[in-house]
């Protein structure tokens, strides 16, 4: 194996600082000693390390949970390293079996292309586009051909493949596993060979695939990549991982006011879990802030700082300041400057039907539940009568702390 002897390079303070940046908030760095040697070599020679993130564009919308890995990439870019944003247009045709108990349906090339463009546009709000190399794994996967695929498949055993938890569990349960699913980790690993990656990032659920890249690089005579897994971010509920299906997510394209308010809604405990993963503040600043809160400072101050930082990242500093003012205004019972305008007919209209028609409640039964809970206001007054009918006119209708509409009823 043509592995460079990297152990002779000095471990300077800058190298140690780079290691600390790498380790911040991460779940695992494998193997840490090899990464330290790679950092030392890069520092001594001035040659940036190649850092890979592979993404199958299965969905076009990014939420804060997705940015945990992107934030880490940005930190490594800021240290001077080369980030490779790899679009898995070929592997998306297979479908990633990670964490699945059924075969994932493949996407069409058209879906992949549309999702990839949207995904990268959003990711560029975190990454520095000037220091990001965009690649598509069809570049080398298609030319590999059937003979190359067979030769690649010969470099890993079925027994090792079945050690993977999702395959093992599905086999034990008698759930079908298609042969093509074995190709997914092999092709992801081959991406690292093609790109000569020094480090690959992914979620904890990607560990098997990431290790495959390391194994295949050794098989092909390359210096093996290190792997860095990042934790899965808990959503706003503080329990489940952030997910659209759980409705505990904050989308990075959501309006600034909504984003700010959602961050403010998290618990004080969850805030300290989010800080190292979502903030770019140095860890010593975060630790000082946490110590001040533990000594009696209002935790709301720390949460406002986090909400403003995250909102400013995606909307700019001015929008973050305005979102804070809007949030404070709502907290005092005020009405936001800009609220949706809705025109409805059918006066006099029952309050539950109005809430549903205005998009403030998904159903009349949910609208009645909100009224019972004291969560509905009309022109600032709490509605307690589910039988209330509103005559023709214009009303400011509020549900909870964040939903407003100016309803023009005729």
From TrEMBL:
Kindly state the positions of the motif 'HIGH' region in this protein.
57-66
Q: What molecular function terms (GO) are annotated for this protein?
A: ATP binding; RNA binding; tyrosine-tRNA ligase activity
Please classify the protein's predominant subcellular localization into one broad category. Answer: cytoplasm
Detail which positions bind ATP: 244
Domain RNA-binding S4, first and last residues per copy: 349-410
Highest taxon above the source species: Bacteria
Q: Alphabetically, which GO biological process terms does the record hold? A: tyrosyl-tRNA aminoacylation
UniProt-annotated location(s): Cytoplasm
Protein family: Belongs to the class-I aminoacyl-tRNA synthetase family. TyrS type 2 subfamily.
Subunit-level organization: Homodimer.
Protein task: Catalyzes the attachment of tyrosine to tRNA(Tyr) in a two-step reaction: tyrosine is first activated by ATP to form Tyr-AMP and then transferred to the acceptor end of tRNA(Tyr).
The protein here is known as Tyrosine--tRNA ligase
Species lineage: Bacteria, Pseudomonadati, Pseudomonadota, Betaproteobacteria, Burkholderiales
Whichever gene encodes this chain, its name is tyrS
């Amino acid at each position: 194996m043509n592995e460079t002897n990297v152990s002779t390079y000095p471990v300077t303070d800058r190298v140690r600082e780079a290691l600390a940046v790498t380790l911040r908030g991460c779940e695992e760095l494998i193997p840490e000693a090899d990464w330290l040697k790679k950092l030392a070599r890069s520092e001594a020679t001035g040659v940036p390390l190649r850092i890979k993130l592979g993404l199958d564009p299965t969905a076009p919308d990014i939420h804060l949970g997705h940015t945990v890995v992107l934030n880490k990439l940005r930190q490594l870019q800021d240290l001077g390293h080369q980030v490779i944003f790899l679009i898995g247009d070929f592997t998306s045709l297979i479908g990633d079996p990670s964490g699945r108990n059924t075969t994932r349906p493949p996407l069409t090339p058209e879906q992949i292309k549309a999702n990839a463009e949207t995904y990268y546009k959003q990711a560029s709000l975190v990454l520095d586009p000037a220091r990001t190399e965009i690649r598509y794994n069809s570049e080398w996967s298609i030319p590999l051909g059937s003979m190359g695929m067979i030769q690649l498949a010969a470099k890993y055993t079925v027994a090792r493949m079945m050690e993977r938890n999702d395959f093992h569990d599905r086999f034990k349960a008698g759930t079908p596993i298609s042969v093509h699913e074995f190709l997914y980790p092999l092709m992801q690993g081959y991406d690292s060979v093609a790109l000569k990656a020094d480090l690959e990032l992914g979620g904890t659920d990607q560990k098997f695939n990431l290790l495959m890249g390391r194994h295949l690089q050794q098989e092909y005579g390359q210096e093996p990549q290190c792997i860095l897994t990042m934790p899965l971010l808990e959503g706003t509920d503080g329990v489940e991982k952030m997910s659209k299906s759980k409705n505990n997510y904050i989308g990075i394209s959501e309006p600034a006011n909504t984003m700010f308010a959602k961050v403010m809604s998290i618990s004080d405990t969850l805030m300290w879990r989010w800080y190292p993963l979502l903030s770019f503040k140095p860890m010593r600043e975060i630790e000082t802030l946490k110590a001040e809160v533990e000594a009696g400072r209002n935790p709301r101050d720390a949460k406002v700082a986090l909400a403003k930082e995250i909102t400013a990242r995606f909307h700019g500093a001015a929008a973050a300041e305005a979102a804070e003012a809007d949030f404070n205004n709502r907290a005092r019972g005020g009405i936001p400057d800009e609220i949706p305008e809705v025109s409805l007919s059918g006066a006099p209209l029952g309050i539950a039907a109005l809430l549903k028609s205005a998009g403030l409640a998904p159903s009349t039964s949910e609208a009645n539940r909100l009224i019972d809970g004291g969560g509905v206001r009309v022109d600032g007054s709490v509605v307690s009568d589910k039988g209330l009918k509103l005559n023709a006119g214009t009303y400011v209708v509020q549900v909870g702390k964040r939903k407003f509409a100016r309803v023009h009823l005729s």
